[in-house]
Amino acid sequence: MTGKGFSTRAVHGAAAPPTVQQPASVPIYQTSTWRFSSSEEFAEVLASARPGHAYGRGYGNPTVEAFESVMADLEETEAAFGFSSGASAIFTTLLLLARRDGAGPGRIVASRHLYGGTYSLFAEVMPTLGIEVDLIDAADLDVVAGALEGASAFYCETIANPLCRVLDLPALAELCREKGVPTVVDSTFASPWLCAPSSFGFDFVVHSVTKFIAGHSDVIGGVVCCSAEDRKRIRHLAIEVGGAMQPFDAWLTVRGLESLDVRIRRQCSNAQLLADALAEDQRIVVVHYPGLTGHPDHETARRLFRQDAYGGVLSVEVDGGVDEAVRWCDALQVAWIGASLGGAHTLVCHPASTTHRQVARESRREFGLADGLVRISAGLEDGGDLVDDFVQALKAV
Ligand code: PLP
């Protein structure tokens, strides 16, 4: 850059050095735009007529692509597309299917056991776009079969937030295939470690990467794993509506994924320890955890999950209502009160007043979301310390 002014040198001096050996850490390409040698090259890359990168709103970034390729591999799909949040991955995937390639708004059939944010997307947002959503009891295959006629998508969660219901995913995928209805599953609670729903026949597997996948409570991200053809359609729509994953988040997530196996093993064993201990306590009405033999979906979970493990989240109903649940949470000393799950710290929340506040009281009752319910995301602490903490805090109830 000799002969150029200070500012020109400051802007152009730091070309990425090519390396002979591969670095252990995927480089962060923290750039929003790319330089082309000609306008023709620029136009062709934008139009996907030749490989390359153009702009950071979904046109591609090598760090994000590194994340996408590892996710596709773990979810056993041909491809994946990264999003800036789980919510944007869910919305974009369902918008793609519900607008039926421009043929007008369609209808989504969804399990009624859902994360509260997805519930309000279905109840508040989709109808304003003309998209109807039928919330049904997806554990009843006859009910599902009756609702599928003419639907544009079927949607459910692998382990549903927060009651940890596990649906018969292979049977649901088969039913939807017979009816020609594309299937979408939010597998956030399971992570690809417990199962790969594409192997059960699901077309789109979405995740809030924010949770177990990134794993350290420092990223908001999402992903959809699907066929290469569907990825093209998702990418096309994501470029229009925004919400593509950004390189630093992809970098943190790739780093987090390297330890997913060891992290989630500990989270599952801590969740099981807590479930076993709390299920014995007189002050507890019920523990919802698929690892307990008394859970209605224990056998389904055993059949679907590849490990003898049942996830890092459980929900526990204390004897009483809102006041007792809140007092229990407030008396915890090791576990933290907070949003999210799947991180290193054990987190608790009271769904009725936080994550599921959007669900009307009557509907909460109907879905089994008791006022005294507390959701626990088991972290990486010592299991004995967690059990002691939750038991000591019950004195405050
Ligand atoms: N899906 C599930 C099951 C969740 O629990 C959440 C958030 O809590 C989301 C999706 C939304 O993800 P994000 O917060 O990354 O947008």
Descriptive account of the structure:
This protein is α/β, with parallel strands linked by helices. The chain has 15 helices and twelve strands. The protein has two domains: 6-30 and 61-257, 3-Layer(aba) Sandwich (Aspartate Aminotransferase, domain 2), CATH 3.40.640; 261-396, Aspartate Aminotransferase, domain 1 (Alpha-Beta Complex). Helices cover 39% and strands 14% of the residues. The protein has a seven-stranded mixed sheet with strand order 1-7-6-5-4-2-3, with helices on both faces. It is globular, with a radius of gyration of 23 Å. Bound molecules: pyridoxal-5'-phosphate.
Give the CATH architecture of the largest domain.
3-Layer(aba) Sandwich
Spell out the CATH superfamily of the largest domain.
Type I PLP-dependent aspartate aminotransferase-like (Major domain)
| End-to-end C-alpha gap | 70 Å
Number of domains: 2
> Mind describing the biggest β-sheet?
7 strands, mixed
CATH class of the largest domain: Alpha Beta
Q: How large is the radius of gyration?
A: 23 Å
CATH topology of the largest domain: Aspartate Aminotransferase, domain 2
Overall strand count: 12
Tell me which ligands are bound.
pyridoxal-5'-phosphate
The shape, in one word, is globular
Low-confidence stretches: none
Main structural class: alpha/beta
The whole-number mean of residue pLDDT values reads 95
SSE arrangement, N to C: HHHEHEHEHEHEHEEHHHEHEHEEHEH
Q: Walk across the major sheet and give the strand order.
A: 1-7-6-5-4-2-3
